[in-house]
């Protein structure tokens, strides 16, 4: 069978998918297969979904069998780069509704710069990533400005990328919201949402007022998630476990620490000896 150059190129390409492809089975119009062939590796020079001439989709060759025999055609699939970009756009839209403050909205593991940082900062990045990957809980303690919140928000984004429900909850703000609705059905609904979310960040534990009611509310949330093996990250300015116990509350600190110390909880990491990198972030945008 005589083939022109274009048909030969299409058949040669098609055989990388289907080695037994026969020229007699090619469709009359090769336009679909030609388009798929030309754009097979478009991801290598991807301009981004906003400039993509196929809107983030690619065509793949498929084989089908009918009474007339075998034919080859194409099917449209979302390309991985387009899928990733759409996910990122969705995450950015969702991040504010998760309670993440605007100044932390762009925090990711990728832009957490550990260059020239204390080893405890480098370890914190590794631990936070592993906890997010393995759905483990984490207590991240250390002085203000060492990147604890940045890492916690980066974890939230990992869960959102996987289609999970994740919440960022500054402890003081959370308790204020519970107080506003206390004694109503809204309180139960609020606490139930927090208890059952796929992932929760309790930010700045230890800054809350130390009262019996406050301590009980905080312990109740932590204990529920611990008991049901639901991951959470707790950030605190405490520098060690004893300080953390005191800051967690006089009536509940010991009980919270007993959960944290359990080998099934996850990890605890203290970022001791780390400088305040907020001034560096303002200059070089290193850490949040």
Description:
The chain has helices spanning 5-14, 31-38, 80-95, 119-134, 148-161, 171-181, 185-196, 212-227, 241-247, 253-260, 278-284, and strands spanning 57-66, 69-78, 137-141, 166-170, 199-203, 232-236, 266-270. It is of the alpha/beta class. It folds into 2 domains: 5-78, no CATH class; 96-284, Rossmann fold (3-Layer(aba) Sandwich), CATH 3.40.50.300. The strands form 2 sheets. A 5-stranded parallel β-sheet has the order 4-5-6-3-7, sandwiched between helices. It has a two-stranded antiparallel sheet with strand order 1-2. The termini are far apart. The mean pLDDT is 83.
**Total DSSP E strands:** 7
Q: Write the element-wise H/E pattern from the N-terminal end onward.
A: HHEEHHEHEHHEHEHHEH
Helix content: 40-55%
Q: How many domains make up the 3D coordinates?
A: 2
Cα(first) to Cα(last) distance is: 66 Å
Q: Rg to the nearest angstrom?
A: 27 Å
